[in-house]
Amino acid sequence: MTTQKVAIVTGAASGIGLRLATTLVNKNWRVALLDINQEAGSALATTLGPSTLFIPTDVSSYASQSAAFAQAFSHFGRIDALCANAGIVDRWSLYDLAGTAEGKTVADVPDEPDLAATEVDFKGVVYGVRLAVHFMRFNPEEGVSGGKKIVVTSSIAGAVPHPALPEYSAAKAGVVGLVRAIAPVLREKEGIAVSCVCPGLAATAVLPGFVVEAVGDALLTKVDDVVKAYLAYLEVEGEEKAGEVVEVVGGSVDVVPPPRVSTQLGKEMMVAGMGPIFGALHGGESKVDLSGFF
Ligand SMILES: NC(=O)c1ccc[n+]([C@@H]2O[C@H](COP(=O)([O-])OP(=O)(O)OC[C@H]3O[C@@H](n4cnc5c(N)ncnc54)[C@H](O)[C@@H]3O)[C@@H](O)[C@H]2O)c1
């Protein structure tokens, strides 16, 4: 029987995921490294050694991510934490500022956009949550303590809208909303604490060098500070911080206050609708205490 906790880290081959995976290994966790980048992922597993397993994965594909979870579970025998961290930014311009109506007709409809950022940053996290809930149900009871955790990497651009990265910003806001929506239910029903880290701009591969230069050292967030925010969720006992969303900017970690319906009527409406909607869709009662939630 192992006393080591097991984490799945997506996007583990670079940047925040790489530092997080390395830190967890140094703290005696065993880590499944999931990434689409096979070369960097294999190299990292070689560096970190036998307490890791690299599994080439495209998180935006349910088949790929579910096969990776199955492999991780079969290799390590349990999954204590999912760090849903893989992410990419917009691959197209929603504004198309260079485009004009000149020389075109109304029938020249723009090409279908490449929504890869939504696929990875939003769909990939939804898939990960679904899989984590399933596999964590099969964790052996004995072994390790600390509780089951899901931590999602959103972004400062998910905590507040970012006009320069509209698709990314919306997808990252989507996962903030997802975390807030599911945390009370997964805590109550599954004993899983779900939380969310929203890093400020950090000098990793996702950020082009010219942006890093323009922002400058004084305003950049250190990857180590993002990892510390992650550890605060992974290392806390139980579900105390379930539903929490934090911004990590510079060395500061601040809770992002949850949005609330602005009128009393609206709050009562939301509470009144919750039971019937939940029952119809999920076939049971949420048993969630909604006082103050809306
Ligand atoms: N660096 C920043 O400024 C910043 C700020 C806020 C949020 N974030 C978020 O932090 C997370 C980590 O990014 P990072 O800064 O370490 O960037 P990074 O580019 O260094 O790392 C991202 C990793 O995700 C992997 N990846 C991309 N698509 C994938 C897919 N389909 N399946 C599996 N893996 C995939 C990449 O191969 C890479 O290893 C991302 O979600 C990113 O949006 C980064």
UniProtKB/TrEMBL annotation:
One GO cellular component term of this record is: cytoplasm
Keywords on this record? NADP, Oxidoreductase
List the InterPro entries hit by this protein, alphabetically. NAD(P)-bd_dom_sf, Sc_DH/Rdtase_CS, SDR_fam
Q: Which Pfam families match?
A: adh_short
Gene Ontology molecular function, alphabetical: oxidoreductase activity
Give the family, as the similarity comment puts it: Belongs to the short-chain dehydrogenases/reductases (SDR) family.
| Protein's name according to its UniProt entry | NAD(P)-binding protein
